[in-house]
Amino acid sequence: MAEQGKELPGYVQREFEEFLQCGRLEHGFLRVRCESCHAEHLVAFSCKRRGFCPSCGARRMAESAALLVDEVLPEQPMRQWVLSFPFQLRFLFASRPEIMGWVLGIVYRVIATHLVKKAGHTHQVAKTGAVTLIQRFGSALNLNVHFHMLFLDGVYVEQSHGSARFRWVKAPTSPELTQLTHTIAHRVGRYLERQGLLERDVENSYLASDAVDDDPMTPLLGHSITYRIAVGSQAGRKVFTLQTLPTSGDPFGDGIGKVAGSSLHAGVAARADERKKLERLCRYISRPAVSEKRLSLTRGGNVRYQLKTPYRDGTTHVIFEPLDFIARLAALVPKPRVNLTRFHGVFAPNSRHRALVTPAKRGRGNKVRVADEPATPAQRRASMTWAQRLKRVFNIDIETCSGC
């Protein structure tokens, strides 16, 4: 990039600079002292970045999962809907994240309408809700912007006395998933055409020239999305892989809808009494981009990364040269002020139903709790310290002195 007179944007450079200082005592620390034996322990400051730092990502994962289960998601059945997009839209969402918000609204309305109609009601009397965590990475450290949406597995039906009754709906069938995927792809394509970002002919769709700007990140994003080497003498070629015997069939089976490069899966659900399973699911969808356990170096000094699940062609690992590995990490850094967690329907901050259905009972129109009133179990869980959350999720007790 330097040879072309370009450099990485400031927010990407800061991501790398602060990552290199993360967890190092010379860049700041907290001194922890035991009051009993006076033993001391130094805890280094963390970078708190959200691009690719594994340790900060793991802490954010634990905090997000505990917050969702304790404060947002009610004790009702929940279902995960996973929506993936074709390469062109992945690139568009990464380079123009403001478009992603409008597309996410379209996706939510399509699935919410399906749930309401399947419950036998209309939007006037029935409401549902979802929490979306936008993931930007794939198993091979490739840029893959896709949506993990935790939907209520049903709807809340408003009652005459002001309360709401939950009504469960059956899991979507394979034909329903295909129809929903077709509807989403059609409406998203039509919206992007109106915005002048997509051009279509009889056979194919193309990103309009106005959708691609002269940003230094553009080639890095494009190569990462298409599994190609971004820098060096091998730029443009496919990433080197290690393979075994190909697997048979689709890992999702028949429970997936596929239309024109988009896919929709809704095969994972948690019952109302499966709160532990729900928290594990929340941790999964908010996990960090890089897993240190799957990362290693080859004898030649290249970076080897193991896939979480082998691809259908038998690919088990991807191999990067050091500079190309850095380019992969750079592509995973989100732009500043892009919210990767969104709340919809009854979970939305401005919803009048939020205080009624969420465990924290916070929302529009809800009265503030008087200080001397006893806290509810949800309020007590919500006020857990960071140390208590570490013990809950990772079984790490930093409040107990190892020397006593």
Automatic annotation (TrEMBL):
One GO biological-process annotation of the entry reads: DNA transposition
User: Which InterPro entries does the entry mention?
Assistant: transpos_IS91 (IPR054832), Transposase_32 (IPR007069), Zn_Tnp (IPR026889)
- Out of the domains of life, which is the source? Bacteria
- Enumerate the spans annotated as Transposase IS801/IS1294 domain: 129-351
> Which GO-annotated molecular functions does the record name?
DNA binding; transposase activity
Residue ranges constituting the Transposase zinc-binding domain according to the UniProt record: 6-84
What is this protein's name? Answer: IS91 family transposase
Q: Which organism is it from?
A: Bibersteinia trehalosi
